[in-house]
Specification:
Largest sheet of chain A: 6 strands, mixed
Strand content of chain B: under 5%
Order of helices and strands of chain A: EEEHEEHEHHHEHEHEEHH
Number of helices of chain B: 9
Distance between the termini of chain B: 33 Å
Structural class of chain B: mainly alpha
Oligomer: heterodimer
Structural class of chain A: alpha/beta
Helix content of chain B: over 70%
Distance between the termini of chain A: 34 Å
Number of helices of chain A: 9
Order of helices and strands of chain B: HHHHHHHHH
Chain lengths: 268, 265
């Protein structure tokens, strides 16, 4: 099977605190990620991953585990300290432009272009990928329809709810038909029904054969959607397998228990 | 959907798409942008270029000194602000530049595109101020548009330099401090920029005359004086062009480096 993504000995050390503050909880219940350099934070420590083409790949870990850093490196927005990674056959360090050409990214927090309306957000983003305006406009309307925000096409971004903005981010990530879709905790802050409908959209995208990499700290979400799940804690890969195989490794068949047995602390 | 075309794109085409995005946003915000950046120069034109000469406190000759300076101030303010202010927003809480940072183009070109947009906005501001100033000030002794090409060239070089300064300020200064830094840097820059008096006039304070040479506005104001009113005292145009070019290269490099630091962690 071909690999859409490969990482080797991927390491990231932030010399100042990590860019995304860890929400809520202190860094870790039983270990300080701060290295010997005082202010240095080891976000990733020799991470080895291989994501297959067409796979729905879930990454689970507590806040500060290194999930966002991993997505950051794979989407060329964070420079690795050591090791290497290829995405759709292109090296993230030496061929970042090529990587960006082939990926779509849904960020943790919606970050639409606030100077543009919803439709313009999509059409301009498509233009950055060389898509002619006519094709882009058609695709944009189609996506807005599919994501059930067609009525907001001409709306200013500020007039859209959090869930609607998140859908707009998904549309933006898809408008240039990327080979690989990255989603960083896409359901954080969504209500249960918005979450369910996002799951349906993701299942549909997966069924079309797209490679999807999604981080989450909801076990249930990863369990329901993923072909395989990587459990990550303190920048290290703890386990990687299908949800069923991971659950089979504990007597109570729960991913939470399995994570706890490996990491020595709870997921949240 | 997965069977549809994936378009390949050259960086030049992405660059044009980024420009067209900024053109759309600028067009929409142009009146607000002009009011924001031109209010102060216009007030100066009214008071120092019209009222005081009418009251007899200033000679008509002063208008010839003031007009090129005001032009320099206008393009400096608009070029800096049109880059620095959006930049602090873009990299701030909303992080909305993300969609452009994900575009298939080398990241330094995204920074350079911002400088190009700032340069154009600086030129637009200058273009608006010149006729308004002439209208309010009335006839200006010695003013000529005979060297229009040179005038546009100096304005372009000055706008680009200030736009690069905007890129550096917008990316290197924390958003919480941008207001404070603007007051700290912009006010001295305007008043010690030889915009409201010729550089030669500083012969009376030699120390200041050489201290102000660090200020890019000095070269823009003096350069514009040289092309718009060649008979008035002004700095050598070769020096003006050489120093502005050097400043553009240095500040541009610093600005792109600072942008990269913010864009890729």
């Amino acid at each position: 099977m071909l690999n859409a993504i490969e990482t080797h000995e991927l390491r990231k050390v932030y010399t100042s605190p990590a860019p995304k503050p860890m929400r809520g909880a202190p860094p870790s219940a039983n270990g300080d990620p701060r290295g010997p350099g005082g202010g240095d934070v080891v976000a990733l420590d020799s991470l080895e991953l291989a994501v297959h083409e067409g796979e729905f790949f879930g990454m689970i870990g507590p806040n500060g585990a290194g999930k966002t850093t991993t997505i950051g490196i794979l989407t060329t927005r964070v420079r690795p300290t050591a090791g290497n990674a290829t995405v759709a056959g292109a090296d993230v360090r030496t061929n970042a432009v090529e990587v960006r050409q082939r990926i779509g990214v849904v960020p943790q927090r919606p970050n639409p272009d606030r100077s543009l309306n919803a439709l313009e957000n999509l059409v301009f983003h498509a233009a950055y990928f060389g898509i002619p305006k006519k094709v882009a406009t058609e695709r944009a309307h189609e996506l807005l329809q599919k994501l059930e925000i067609a009525s907001k096409a001409e709306a200013k971004v500020d007039e859209m709810s959090g869930g609607q903005q998140q859908r707009l981010m998904i549309a933006r990530a898809l408008i240039h038909e990327p080979q690989i879709l990255f989603l960083d905790e896409p359901t954080v802050g969504l209500d249960p029904s918005a979450r369910q409908s996002l799951w349906a959209i993701l299942r549909d995208l997966h069924a079309q054969g797209r490679t999807i990499v999604m981080t989450t700290h909801y076990m249930e979400e990863a369990d329901r959607l993923s072909d395989r799940i990587a459990l990550i804690d303190r920048g290290k890969l703890l386990a990687l397998d299908t949800p069923a195989a991971l659950k089979a490794r504990t007597p109570d068949g729960s991913l939470e228990t399995f994570f706890m047995s490996l990491a020595g602390h709870k997921l949240d | 959907m997965n069977e549809r075309t994936t378009y390949r794109v050259a960086p030049a085409k992405v660059f044009l798409a980024l420009l067209s995005r900024d053109a759309r946003v600028t067009r929409r915000e142009l009146p607000f942008f002009l009011i924001r950046t031109l209010m102060q120069p216009l007030m100066f034109i009214i008071v120092f270029g019209s009222l005081l000469p009418k009251m007899g406190f200033m000679g008509a000759q002063y208008k010839a000194v003031l007009l090129p300076g005001i032009l320099g101030v206008s393009l400096a303010l608009s070029a800096i602000q049109s880059v620095a202010l959006p930049m602090t927003m873009d990299f701030g809480w909303t992080n909305e530049i993300e969609d452009r940072l994900l575009a298939p183009i080398p990241i330094p070109l995204i920074a350079i595109e911002k400088v190009v947009v700032g340069t154009i906005q600086g030129l637009i501001a200058g273009l608006c101020v010149l006729p308004i100033a002439r209208l309010i000030m009335g006839p200006i002794p010695g003013l000529t548009l005979a060297h229009l090409g040179e005038t546009v060239f100096i304005a372009l070089l000055g706008s680009a330099t200030f736009s690069a300064i905007g890129l550096f300020m917008g990316t290197a200064i924390k958003p919480q401090q941008i207001g404070f830094m603007f007051s700290l840097i912009i006010a001295p820059m305007l008043f010690f920029g030889c915009a409201y008096y010729p550089w030669k006039g500083l012969d009376v304070v030699p120390a200041l005359k050489y201290a102000v040479l660090i200020n890019p506005l000095v070269y823009v104001a003096e350069g514009l004086r040289g092309v718009l009113n060649p008979s008035s005292p002004h700095m050598n145009l070769g020096v003006v062009v050489a120093v502005l070019t050097a400043m553009l290269i240095v500040v541009g490099w610093l600005g792109v480096r600072s942008f990269l630091k913010r864009a890729v962690k």
